[in-house]
Amino acid sequence: MSLKGKAAIAGLGITAQGKVYHTNHVGFAAEAVHLALEDAGLARADLDGLLVNPGLSWGDGSMASFQVQQAMGLRNLRLSVAMNAGGATACAMIQQAAEAIDAGLCNVVACVFSDAPLKPPKPKPAGDGGGKGTGGSAGAYGFARGLDAAYGQFGVNAMYAMVAQRHMHLYGTTNDHLGAIAVAERQWANRNPSAQFHDAPMSIEDYHHSRWVVEPFHLFDCCLVSNGGLAVIVTAAQRARDLRQPPVYVWGMGQGHPGGDPLETLTSGAVLAKETAFRMAGITLRDIDVVELYDCYTFTVLVCLEDYGFCTKGEGGAFVADGKIAPGGTLPVNTGGGQLSSFYMWGMTPVSEAVIQMRGAGAARQVEDAKVALVSGNGGILSTHSTLVLANHR
Amino acid sequence: MAEYPKPIPAITPEMRPFFEAAKRRELVVQRCLRCGTHRFPAREICSNCLSREVEWARVSGAGEVFSYNVMHQVYHPGFADAVPYAVVVVKLKEGAKLNSNLIGVAPQAIRIGMPVQVIFEDITDEVTLPKFAPA
After folding, report:
1. A-proximal residues of B, 21-60, CB under 8 Å
2. Which residues in chain A touch residue B69, judged by CB atoms under 8 angstroms apart?
3. Mean pLDDT, residues A69-74 taken together
4. Which of A3, A55, A257, B86 is most buried, judging by how many CB atoms fall within 10 Å of its CB?
């Protein structure tokens, strides 16, 4: 029997985001769950399910759900698991919650992400030379013992950049195309008072002038870094209707994890995940009013627009070039500014904006008459993918 | 020799044959003994047929640039003078891919599909690194 519309998001909690230092990753998670419960009009005692996606600062996050349970004094949970598929986790947590509720395990599930990678700035000692490559002890560069480091290959940006470079080679994708995505999302962020870049407009010239991180990625091709926490409360649809907020119904769920080498395929798991999610939801692309895509990079958005079928493989650049994804365009994408310009709570960023849009709570950035939202999560290097179709009606 | 400023890779047990071959100026990658698939770096099992039977096989050293990036951030002080520099993915003729550097080609001149051939760079008395040059 289809799960379409049987579960709903009944609460949303977003802590302060960005350069915030008042607590740690556990504290941010607890705060977000607390805010989400308040938003729903529920109490801690109502919660019997907890799913936690630990960000990088958790280190070993294997017991993250238990840690949050203990931090919040929660008792007698009937579902409590730490989950991690990178950026695909947020949608996957909501899927897990919906399935567990439907199976009768539990009734009220908090799904939460938190991270605190930013450290408060240290006061600089007098006479510090700074500069781009100060020497350090061998211990400080313990990460540099692998073979990749010998060739100067460091970090995720470097690997993702290689995938983008190949897409540019095969399909003629350009930095102007990627820049169109960055500029559009910044325009949305400029309408979102909660966005870290709310007050900073960006032109395409600004995009091109932003420093190179690793070619072909400029600074403005790469997502922000944020401290904070973000949680949703998932309940059965009929329970959500009794609570404080307009329910946001889960119509469709899917995951897609293609395997193989993304350098060869230049394709995410969206192709696979969409099939499951859209079949469950009983929709086609034409039914989507707002699109919230995981945007660790502008390039990820471009690939996912292709993979969801808004355009064909390789045509993502031309598709975004005319500004249709920006405010005023025909296909609103990342309407809060996304991870590029609002805040980076992994897959919870697009989830939260979809919930806000479905509730009609988007204020200056509200897409008029938005009824159905597509949400994506993407992890690794086009490694993992999850999809939700959300709607503001049954 | 002046102290090598860039990171020196740890010689792990599973990768030892690669480094020993490089000192002999030979490029080797793992080859599954059951299905013949080449793979790099060292892995426990063949992802094609799941066999654990493997040998380190000498390869021709010929390949092409499959992709690349140009690094602008300094992650390690040894690269402070090198930025911006390119890291390439070379797809060897035999099928395996490996990250490396392309010597003698400015980053802006790198083209996907460029034919390349392995060369060897002694970075310390103990460690030699395979790199690539235009073929």
Report:
1. 41
2. 158, 161-162, 165, 214-216
3. 98
4. A55
pLDDT value at position A140?
A: 62
Q: How many CB atoms lie within 10 A of CB B22?
A: 20
Sign of the C-alpha dihedral, residues A116, A303, A293, A49? negative
Judge: A154–B100 Cβ closer than 8 Å, yes or no: no
Each domain of chain B, given as residue ranges in start order, spans: 13-134
Has A344 been annotated as catalytic? yes
Task: Kindly indicate the confidence band of residue A133, based on its pLDDT and cuts at 50, 70 and 90.
Answer: very low
Rounded CA-CA distance B76/B9 in Å is 13
Which chain A residues touch B22 with a CB distance below 8 Å?
none
pLDDT at B44 over 60: yes
- Of all residues in chain B, the one with the smallest CA distance to A141 is B76
How does residue A144 score in pLDDT terms, banded at 50, 70 and 90?
confident
Q: What distance in Å separates the CA atoms of residue A209 and residue A392, rounded to the nearest whole number?
A: 41
pLDDT at site B3: 87
Question: Is A250 in contact with A98 (CB distance < 8 Å)?
Answer: yes
Q: What is the per-residue pLDDT across A146-164, written as a single tens digit (0 to 9) for each? A: 999 999 999 999 999 999 9
CA distance to A8, A91, A339, A375, B82, per residue, from B73 (Å) = 44, 32, 21, 32, 10
Q: Extract the tokens encoding A117.
A: 């990678």
Q: Enter the CATH code of domain A7-119+225-240.
A: 3.40.47.10
User: Which residues in chain A have their CB less than 8 angstroms from residue B131's CB?
Assistant: 151
> How close does chain B come to A153, measured CA to CA in Å?
6
Does A294 participate in catalysis according to the annotation? Answer: yes
Give me the residue spans of the domains in chain A.
7-119+225-240
pTM: 0.95
At B66-80, the pLDDT tens digits run 999 999 999 999 999
A387 conformational bin, left if phi > 0, alpha if psi -120 to 50, beta if neither? beta
